[in-house]
Amino acid sequence: MSRIAQRFADLAEQGRKGLIPYFTAGDPNPELTVPLMHQLVAAGADLIELGVPFSDPMAEGPVIQAACERALAHHVALHDVLDYVREFRKTDAATPVILMGYLNPVEVMGYEAFARRAAEAGVDGVLIVDMPPEEGYEPVKLFQAAGLDLIFLAAPTSNAARLKKIAGLSSGFVYYVSLKGVTGAATLDVDAVAEKLAEVRTYIKLPVGVGFGIKSADDAARIAKIADAVVVGSAIVKRIAEHQQDPQAVLSSVAELVESMRQAMDGKT
């Protein structure tokens, strides 16, 4: 059983929902990435989604686009991100880490080389935004052979045929995009998410994490009632941006947000 599958199994046994924070590796500076990963775990993260900086992150809103630009200004590349995960693994062998990014850096490294190096570094899963399931068959084979879970996105517009394809290729969990648009946009409609999740679950038996548009502890608690996990990105990255000149303030502000979400999801507020 993969680390991701084990974590979701443990959460289900405990009657809890997963909290999956996202931030862009190298933002606000490379030296803070590994400490921030550990801080997220201490604050209540169950899995970590680590963004690979890319110059044209098409699914991202302005907040995460700016984070990619800050990381790229430090020349953070895919091989650096793998190094961060390797360093994180020296003292945390349990928390699943998912890399979220785009196809170009993986293709430059090569699918097979990437799969091997990612697994060796301690990566557990990969979410490649611009690789649809129709184009994922060969990479899936390589990733699975290396022990990596390949996570696909489902959306409000995903029809039955697409959901069946996602179900046939995904492992670990499926990421449901809660709204039409980019990260950090629009207002969360929990009723609409719940209605679509019912359809998604008729085809997909893996755990389903919900992200995009989750900005507060209240949002996280409401989504936790209908999903297996809550994915939070822009709200965290916004705090990083606000305190980017003060590393300690970054750590404490992000921890405060994640702790508040964890407590709300667990009904402790």
Please name the defining characteristics of this protein:
269 residues; alpha/beta; TIM Barrel; nine-stranded parallel beta sheet; 9 strands
Strand order of the largest sheet: 5-4-3-2-1-9-8-7-6
Amount of beta strand:
5-15%
The average pLDDT is 92
* Annotated CATH architecture: Alpha-Beta Barrel
Shape: globular
Number of helices: 12
Radius of gyration, in Å, reads 17 Å
| Residues in helix, % | 40-55%
Order of helices and strands: HEHEHHEHHEHEEHEHEHEHH
**Could you say how many structural domains there are in total?**
1
CATH homologous superfamily title: Aldolase class I
Euclidean distance between termini CA atoms: 34 Å
CATH topology-level name: TIM Barrel
Largest sheet properties: 9 strands, parallel
Q: How many runs of DSSP E, i.e. beta strands?
A: 9
Could you please describe the fold and organization of this structure?
The chain has helices at 3-14, 33-43, 62-73, 78-89, 103-109, 111-121, 137-146, 160-169, 190-203, 217-224, 234-242, 247-265; strands at residues 18-24, 48-51, 97-101, 125-128, 149-150, 153-154, 174-177, 208-211, 229-232. It is of the alpha/beta class and 269 residues long. It has a 9-stranded parallel sheet.
Give a short synopsis of this structure:
With 269 residues, the chain is of the alpha/beta class. The chain has helices spanning 3-14, 33-43, 62-73, 78-89, 103-109, 111-121, 137-146, 160-169, 190-203, 217-224, 234-242, 247-265; strands at 18-24, 48-51, 97-101, 125-128, 149-150, 153-154, 174-177, 208-211, 229-232.
